[in-house]
Amino acid sequence: MREFARLAVRVTHRIENLGKVVVAALNGHALGGGLELAEACMIRIAASHAKLGHPEVRIGAVAGFGGTTRLARLVGKGRAAEMLLRGRAIDAEEALRVGLVQQVTAADELMDAARSLLYDILGQSPDAVRLTWEALHRGLNMTLEESASLGADYFGLAAATENFRIGTDAFIKKVTPDFTHQRVKENRQTRAQ
Question: Which CATH number fits domain 2-121: 3.40.50.1820, 3.40.570.10, 3.10.20.30, 3.90.226.10?
Answer without folding.
Answer: 3.90.226.10
